Amino acid sequence: MKKLTERTSVRILFFKNGMGQDGHEITVGKETMKKVLDTCTIRMNLNLPARYFYDLYGRKIEDISKVPLLEKCLQNSITPLRGLLWVSKGEGFSPSGAKMYIQGVLLALYQRLKSAKKYYKQLNLVMNEQKEKITEKVILSMTAKEHHKEQEEVSRLIDELQTAIKSNIGHLCKLGPQLQAEQEQFSSYVYQHIKSLPANTLVPGGLQLKVFENGKNTGEISVGISKKDLGSDSPIQTDHMMERLLLKIHQRLQGSSINPPGLNYSSMRLFDENGQEIKNPLSLKNEQKIWVSYGRAYRSPLNLALGLTFDRVSAFARGDIMVAYKTFLDPNAVLLPGCGNWEVCEGFPINFNCTSQQIPDQFEKVDLENHFLQNKVDPNIVLHASVSIGKWSFSGSEASSRSQIAPSILWPVASVWLITKTGMILSRAITQGCLAIGHPIRVKAAEGTSLEGYKLILQKRHSGDDSQKWVFGTDGCIYSKAYPQFVLTYLEELNAQVDVTQTEYHIHHGAWTTAHQEHGRNLAEEVLQESASNLGLKQLPEPSDTHLMPEGSLEETGELTVALVRKLEEKHPKASAQRWAIKHEGTSKPGQWKHSRVENPLWNKLTYMWPVLPSGQLNEEFDWPIQGLLVPSSPPMKKPICKTTEPYAPVRLRVLQNGEKNKNRSVTILGPDISPGRKTQCTEILNLPSAARRLYNEKGKEIFALKDLQRDELVYVSCGELWINPDLSIAQQKKQIFLRNLESDIAKIQIFCSTHKIEALVLEVQSDIVSGSKLAVHKPVAIFGEEKQVTEPEEKQMQEDPLTTENASSEILDSHVRAHLRMKACHTLPRYAWQETSHDFDEDDSLPKKTEKGLFENVEPQKKHSCSPKHSKLHKHCHQQFEYRDGQIISHAAPQLVLGVQGPNLRSGMEVVLVEKKSDGSHQRWIHQEDSRTFHLVSNPDLVLAVSMTKTRNEVCGYPVIVQKYKPYNNGAANQKWHYMKNIKALVAFHSTALDKEITSANYAGVCTSSVIKEENIDQPGYCYLSPDGKRKTMLCLACGQSMRTEKGLKQLLPGVPFLCISGTKTQKPFLQGPFKVISVAEVDLSCDKAEKTLSYYQARLLSLRMKTCTQAASHSGMAATHQKAVKIIAYKNGDGYRNGKLIVAGTFPMLLTECTEQLGLARAASKVYTKDGTPIFTLRDLVLWALDESFLQRDSEKQKQDAAPVGKEQIIVESMEENPRMKVKNRLFAKSVTSDSLDGIDKSLLTLILRNPIAIWVSCGEPFLPPNALQKAEKLEKQNWLKKDRILADLDTMRHKMRQLKGRRVAACQPATMVPTKSPVQPVVVEGGWTEQTQQEIKLMELIRHTEAHLSEIQEMESKINFPIATKRIAVKPSNLYKQPNTKRVWIYLNGGRPEDGTYAWGKTISELLQDCSSRLKMTHPARALYTPSGEPIQSWDDIERDMVICVSMGHGFKTPKELKQLMEIRANYARIRRQQGPQATDIVVSPSTKLLSLAHLHN
């Protein structure tokens, strides 16, 4: 039994060399090492044969049976697993794979240990009789014995896990030197066994180059260049050598990611490590690294990015005083990755064991109030994170960690950040921490100026803390929400240094030698005294244990590279230091950068992204949160405008309407520049439906200046729409225009959906509360409800004593702002007329949101040393409190400031700002109409306080506040409705009904109001359209009226006239299109609950239409190459000869293939095209050239027939020309300078004459060419065979009939036989003749019949053999015989030992083919070997198999029923269970005879 069940094979875990994931468990028996290597090569899909096995420490394995077992806690099945082994293809051992595996195992073990400890605590609660705290219901149902046993098992599991963790940590520590060497030597580490040649020696026959893609430092491709490849090495012929070098590298890179298909080597450029372009091949060295670019400038593989560096922190204590300092962090130390193993502590951890004896030689003090990272496993490991700029690689995390110069990088994602919608920038490595503002600093610029700023730190995130929130501006800057005038700045580009005297913390140095030990002690005591005097220092309990500090001195901390600095001017020469971009990093959410909406195309080339739209609103198309690197010094977000003043000479141009196909309709104009006057001229000449706005050339490139245009060049004029390719068919042009119009309509619906549900917004001061600050409406802070009871007594106190109110409000502000307010209150500077701000805006226009620049440059931000949420809310609360008293809207925080309008000339659209309170200021007094809920300006009552609703709202700054002309409508003026809440001193905007808000949003989005309200007349702004005959009036909403603004009979409606826009009614007239270009207004439902569904429906419809009408033209993004004229073609299916041809007109080769696939009904996509002589065609130009060759060939052959001489030398010439006629024609064509790339040498009239008739082609799906006459030959041969067989059958019937006649005559005659005597004694008389004996004629005829039947059978057999290959080659399709069944049989199969109903169908022509099909369809682990009937009888012959027969399939074992298989499985399970429970010795059973039987045997003997 033991020998039967014992297994000699073992399971071993293998990994690819350098990998620690995706391992392969391979069962290994008594095979040789070579067979095991071959098995690994197949299972791991290696591109080269496996050669070596390495263990965990890089030692080669010679005997596979000596591989040790894995830890018990890592076993995953009953059969033990051995390992670990790494498979090499010949290279050396890479320890990074072992590191990757150990880190993954440690993470899994720590998680299991955590859950085991938690479960153990639950078990202990039963012993402590605290059952009410138990959450595991299984524990409550256990008996005392089961509980004790479970407790012992869990305790044993915890010990095993802790032992495994220590063992793996020890493995990782031993791998430290190898990992360090691999990081230093990069990819050359695994090739140490290969001796490298000196750098100045050439490889025999050439040199070896390491080629990288531009902008990357991974994916190295080795390229060998020989002297023969370069040709001559003369310095004079460097250009020729460089061209050959580029061609050689281009050929070597074919198919790789560096060289995708379609790129030409002529645009290739080579660069060295310094970014210098290589133009001389003789300057290259062996093993030199070069970077390849196809037409683009050099991009460094290492890029700057904002990241985190980590320092280990320790502390020493004297009494109750503790000082924290940075200490050395061993780069080889085992620090577990992953944010789950670290906890962010606000302040220095309390449970840290401080050092009280020795003080380090040099130390850098760390403030105890900072935020630290503490290891959950070992609390004595405390880290401090610093924010800095480092060089990181975008291609991979490993390169990133190497390129950053820091004490240690724990996680490869230390430079990756998560940007949330709320404005927080979270660290991807520590998701509990976020980027925040630290203590104030002073930055000294290179030119000597001093700038104020703040240090950046990593803090534990709090949702209500404004110091942790950031605003992404439309100019590429990242603003602080707490200090809006300060932005993130890269200091190294600013050439700025941090003034150490202005920082809060600095490095303390001391020399703790024997000679100066006393001085060092004094220094340490001084630091301790300084820490004790700090009121903010936490008093920690005295630690119980002490640890010695590491020896050795520390280097000084590097200068800050990034900080929060005041915003520079837009035209400042160093303004790029404050511009940032987000570079996507990681494998999740690919293609995020495509959603970015930045005007500068350089951002798309660099795959940068920005989370806000150009209007300032958050981009909802992103998959939030956004993950990526923060890259400094990004390009400008706006497209650079090149302004030139060079005068251009007048250019004569030919202009056409956009999309016009007939070039003969072009009109000639004279254009010195692209001025509005010239565009007006184009509008009138071309009779465009609206004004001309954009110009394009023949290739679809937009024209902005005429400097690059040639005389009489063709120019396409559009009315603002994108370029329409004239080479497209009219149907394709209409589809393209339809999709663009549909996209425009959906954009309007999207704007409406984003603004129709406007929440409660309150009036707020955008920046500091000083004169000139702009106002906006924003979400109210939650402190309104909390401080409701406090504000009421404050209001009474304010009425009693205004001075007390001013002092109370000023307590919220900092001292600097209060000083400015006092100065402005006692001293007001006079203003000249040119100093007044003026804006020229029309009615209802919205102002652009600009950053406040130069009005108050000397106003410093608030300096808060603690950014508590309550303080932040109070600061926000005072910006949103206003009082309406004595006709003025007064700021509650600064009562000397009120709302007003600056400038003498009032107009609609001017901004409302904070102005100084004046008794006679008419521009700052307001009349509150409570019935209409509006605030009217006293100086001009037609102007009211309103919210400027831009099409996209800025989530951070909100909507700006302006004065606007009063709209006396019940609906459509919600932005002018206000509600003054006296109890909380707030002005609430959009205080109106939901219908009013929806109509207002529809008007600003350009959506018809009838799609919002269905069949209801309401009071709203609109127009009245009077028909030309003056008999009919039509009511239109604001959006529909603006779309018909060119009509003469359009007049604005007076207030108080309720109506429903006619665009949404079913009686809509054809001339009323409404605001939409494609969508019907009557079919759009934008009511409150259906707007989002409507938007989703049309977005899905647009996406579906785009997928269906995806163009396959050669042009890309409107930039097209030279187009081939459409060619008439008659297409046949390959192998069908001249049958079922289809006429196709195609302009491009992909279009030809698509049309052939559809019209010919091919089963697969057409991929190959042939002419009648078998010439493969790859482009339409090749087809046209072949047609030209064919026409010349036919003409020459006709001439040869006429001029051919029958004898002599002329006949030889004619015969030679007939043998190679196409070569002659090609020579003639090439004499006329006709190549495959150009047809300019051919007369166009001749070309038109030749292409008048369609060109015959044969299309295949990849199979080889079959001549067109092959089908005719096959049919002719088949017909001949049929005729021959018919003749034989007819002759055979005739002979058989004659045979029957002869036999009948002989029998009817009844002639008697003749007795002939013989000399034989045996048979003296022989009977001859008679009617029973065949005649000689019958015998000859029978032989002839047999010969004919044999000949007929040979013909039939030959025909059956010929029919099969003809069918496979598609030469002829023979109709199948109606009474002849096919050889393939279908049977029902099931596994041996299984049930027949669990089987499936299989097909085959032979037993071997059937066995192969059974193996694949039943997914058998081993090939099928034997077939049985359901009764167990083996099947040996193909004739024994019948159609739809039930067959049992076996892998070589004997036939088994399901019951027998179940019994066998139970035996194996019992055997394994006994060995597991009672040990291996339990199955060592020896059966011996009884003593009684032995005695009987002895007596018998």
Oligomer: single chain
Helix/strand class: alpha+beta
pLDDT < 50 runs, ≥5 residues: 395-410, 500-558, 783-813, 826-870, 1111-1123, 1205-1238, 1364-1380
* Mean residue pLDDT: 75
| Gyration radius, rounded | 46 Å
Q: Please report the total strand number as a whole number.
A: 59
Percent helix among the residues?
Answer: 25-40%
As laid out across the biggest beta sheet, the strand order is: 11-13-14-9-10-12-23
Task: Describe this protein with a few key phrases.
single chain, 1501 residues, alpha+beta, 7-stranded antiparallel beta sheet, 6-stranded antiparallel beta sheet, 32 helices, 59 strands, 20% strand, extended
Structure in words:
With 1501 residues, this protein is α+β, with helices and mostly antiparallel strands. It has 32 helices and 59 strands. A 7-stranded antiparallel sheet has the order 11-13-14-9-10-12-23. Strand 15 (417-419) and strand 16 (425-427) form a beta hairpin. Helix 14 runs antiparallel to helix 20 (994-1005) and helix 14 (730-755) runs antiparallel to helix 22. The radius of gyration is 46 Å and the shape is extended. It starts with a helix and ends with a helix. The relative contact order is 0.04.
